[in-house]
Amino acid sequence: MMQLPQHHKPSKPSAPSSCSSWIRRSPPPSPPPHKKAGGGGAGGGRGRYACRLVPLLVLTVYSVFTVLRIPSSSLVVTTDSERVDRRDDLEALKTHLPSNQNGLEAREETRSVASLPCSAFINGEAGHGEDGVLCCDRSHYRSDVCYLRGDARTDPSTSSVFLYGAPRGSAPEKVRPYTRKFEDSIMSTIDEVTVVPVPGAFNASSGADEGGGMRRRCDVRHPRGVPAVVFSTGGYTGNVYHEFSDGLIPLFVTAQRFAGEVVFVVLEYHYWWLGRYGAVLERLTNYKIVDFRNDRRVHCFDEMIVGLRIHGELVVDPKLMPNGKSIKDFQALLHQGYSRTPVVPLSSSSSSSSQAPVPLALAPPCDTHATARAPKPKLVIFIRKKNRVLLNLPHVVTACRKAGFAPHVMNLRRQTPLPAIHAALASADAMVAVHGAAVTHFLFMRPGSVLLQIVPVGLDWAADAFYGKPAQQLGLEYLEYKVAPEESSLAAKYGLNSTVVRTPWVISSRGWWEMKKVYMDRQNVTVNVKRFAELLRQARAHLKNNTAAAACRHHRHGGGALSSEVERR
């Protein structure tokens, strides 16, 4: 074997494990000149370089692993120790910063006025103390509602409202303040209100805005904190169902949160409407109503809502109300307005609410002998004269008597005072009516009483949606008598097996007006008395059970008059 020169001869490892030499800071001493290279010299050199690469590789892998690991968790340094904990909770992800890192708390970001939904202002959930707010909520299929806060002044000559100091960049808004937005034909008859924004601050010394324009002089300045609610009594006003569903209930939904401190500004104002519903309106507002079209004065407000909120047909949805009010709260308002005496809760007595209920005798709980001697329950029958007439009314009255009721027939007219209707129904145990606007008066009935609706051919959906479901939400027992094809006058007119009688959905698919013309305007009914009597027996059984349960509750609570006091103005 050829020998290498002495200065190229590799040194022999001095220890069996040469991997420990990588921590030395200085190179090893040179080997003696006389030392010969051993057979493992070259292998030892490669091993030494490999040992140096291994820790570098370990450090590299550790660094990469650490970098990849950090985003998958949050680090929270506690203030009372140097311990670092891992947090995987969702709260840390909301702000991307742990809430207590370095002793600092993450604060909720304050939302700007522009970022808040308009509904928050309309419902009173935001905007307190904020001026210069103009927004419109057009998301509901039934109504558009605009909200103004600042210096709002009416201009009846142009059917406008000017908002001075409006946000810069605001555009004029047009709204028809009626709750049937989906019905173009009727909405075209509603007066339109234009909200005109006037940006810029007011210069008190010159009496003008930044742009030099002069503000309209206030003839009536309403107190600060007393807003206006602008709405229309046009459209279908004149039909009692629409007066409640499209008008009074949406007005309650929109304005009741103000507890009377609100001014109603009415478009298409009708004096008869005020006379008919004044007893309800005076419990929603403490101020005189403003006739927007005919009152030529400039009214100034610091807050205004143009349009009404609506939840559905004869509905007040507690989940959508800022204070959880429901249709029962609206009914309480009706009782307060139209009752001259306290309303008596449901009992077997059919006497007027002006008569105090007779205290129950001291009998064993749930004893039915006390209720067996009670007068027959009162049943009110509403009749119609033009269409959807109940042709065999005398037979129906007889069936009601046989079922154990005391029937009272009412022929409602437009001029029938609402207090008289309220008195009849607030003391009634049951009501019978063919589908129509008069069924709306179930709103005067006590929870636990019975509504029996006679549903003509082709009106199943409308009967349930407009009256059935709302009556149940009010706590009434709801029963339906569905008119059979042979019991409808349409069978004689079109034929028993005609499309009109057998497949009403075909006619209804042509639109509301076609359905109304055929099934509402041209139909009368003759009920099957035997089948009708079955429903009367169900109604009677419900009232007996309800009365027995009330008697038990009354007995367990130590007696006393079963009455509820209604606040009177």
From TrEMBL:
| Disordered as annotated region, ranges | 1-44, 548-569
Q: Which InterPro entries match?
A: Glyco_transf_61_cat (IPR049625), Glycosyltransferase_61 (IPR007657)
Bilayer topology annotation: Single-pass type II membrane protein
A molecular-function term among this protein's GO annotations: pentosyltransferase activity
Give the GO cellular component terms, alphabetically.
Golgi membrane
Q: What is its main location?
A: Golgi
Going by the UniProt record, its keywords in alphabetical order are:
Glycoprotein, Glycosyltransferase, Transferase
From start to end residue, where is composition biased (Low complexity)?
Answer: 12-25
Q: Where is the Glycosyltransferase 61 catalytic domain?
A: 337-451
Name its pathway: Glycan metabolism
Localization of this protein: Golgi apparatus membrane
Q: Report the domain of life of the source organism.
A: Eukaryota
Biased composition (Basic residues) is annotated at 1-11
State what protein this is by name: Glycosyltransferase 61 catalytic domain-containing protein
> What is the organism lineage in this UniProt record?
Eukaryota, Viridiplantae, Streptophyta, Embryophyta, Tracheophyta
